[in-house]
């Protein structure tokens, strides 16, 4: 299936799929936009490949299709109760709350409780950067990381991202999991029956493996060894401990609800906008001039998104077939 689609066609179809899972139209449209934009910017493991599993979770009420999100404001911070919302709905909502708060404060830390899987965190920090703010975001996950010889997963792979406006150019967006490779890459390899590279994962006995299915039954390996473990611990402190409640402490650490944090900073409140912009220009110019191959994080994503919006998007054959089957089940045929 080598069909090429206009992104807005897939966005509209995705929104209809989510509406078929009882998501209100406005929220379905926003979530669809986030999923498609993730796909367009190259986050293949967090784009359209996630739709079928999200639909299943909505239908099973593991995600709340009609959340009533609430928040309370404190000095320099916000506590957002996402009420089980999809991450693609809760994340943009948190960004809007943060940007609004920056009208009267220099910095705001938002902790997000009862939040579904946020997908590609870089899409959320991109939204904040497009709104003029520096931002950092992290989400804790169920235990997934282990070092060789561990008896099982010890800590989440806890993705973290930041976004920063860059004058005259697309924002810088950096997005990583604390594992060597995101679990989504392992899921995709297992789905396609392909092996994974050495150094990505361990089996259930703590031994290195290239078998994607054995890796899913075992653990991911942290990037840069103990350094990746340390960053995962930082995310646990910010996204887990700060968002903790009596209810979450007593709940099993499943993977449906994953608390998160989002920190936003208004650049002009510190150095002033002119000085900030000039500094950003200088260091990024030094960086990219150091090599013909040097590029800033986010530049490739911006380029391929622009290309796809001009000339259409394609999907891997296996994912296109999966989406077609999903559309058939829900009575919303995938456009061809």
UniProtKB/TrEMBL annotation:
UniProt keyword Methyltransferase, yes or no: no
Plastid is among the record's keywords: no
UniProt keyword list: Oxidoreductase
Stored InterPro entries: Mal/L-sulf/L-lact_DH-like_ah, Mal/L-sulf/L-lact_DH-like_NADP, Mal/L-sulfo/L-lacto_DH-like_sf, Malate/L-lactate_DH-like
GO molecular function: oxidoreductase activity
Recorded family membership: Belongs to the LDH2/MDH2 oxidoreductase family.
Protein name stated in the entry: Malate/lactate/ureidoglycolate dehydrogenase, LDH2 family
Species per Swiss-Prot/TrEMBL record: Caballeronia arationis
């Amino acid at each position: 299936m080598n069909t090429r689609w206009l992104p807005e066609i897939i966005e509209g179809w995705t929104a209809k799929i989510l509406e078929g899972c009882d998501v209100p139209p406005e929220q379905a449209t926003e979530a669809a936009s986030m999923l498609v934009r993730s796909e367009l910017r190259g986050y293949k493991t967090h784009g359209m490949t996630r739709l079928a599993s999200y639909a299943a979770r909505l239908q099973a009420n593991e995600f709340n299709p009609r959340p009533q999100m609430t928040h309370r404001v404190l000095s320099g911070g916000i506590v957002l109760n996402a009420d089980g919302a999809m991450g693609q709905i809760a994340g943009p909502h948190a960004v809007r709350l943060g940007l609004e708060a920056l009208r009267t404060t220099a910095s705001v830390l938002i902790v997000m409780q009862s939040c579904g899987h946020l997908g590609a965190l870089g899409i959320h920090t991109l939204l904040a950067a497009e709104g003029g703010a520096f931002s950092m975001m992290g989400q804790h996950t169920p235990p997934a990381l282990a070092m060789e010889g561990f008896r099982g997963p010890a800590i989440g792979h806890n993705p973290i991202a930041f976004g920063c406006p860059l004058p005259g150019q697309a924002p810088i967006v950096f997005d990583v999991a604390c594992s060597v490779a995101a679990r989504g890459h392992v899921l995709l390899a297992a789905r396609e029956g392909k092996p994974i590279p050495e150094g990505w994962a361990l089996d259930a006995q703590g031994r290195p493996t290239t078998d994607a299915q054995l890796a899913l039954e075992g653990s991911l390996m942290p990037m840069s060894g103990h350094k990746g473990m340390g960053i995962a611990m930082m995310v646990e402190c910010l996204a887990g401990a700060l968002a903790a409640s009596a209810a979450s402490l007593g709940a099993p650490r499943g993977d449906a609800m994953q608390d998160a944090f989002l920190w936003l900073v208004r650049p002009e409140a510190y150095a002033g906008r002119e000085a900030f912009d000039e500094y950003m220009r200088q260091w990024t110019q030094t960086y990219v001039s150091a090599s013909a191959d040097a590029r800033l994080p986010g530049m490739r994503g911006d380029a391929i998104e622009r290309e796809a919006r001009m000339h259409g998007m394609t999907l891997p054959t296996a994912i296109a077939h999966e989406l077609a089957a999903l559309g058939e089940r829900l009575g919303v045929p995938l456009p061809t």
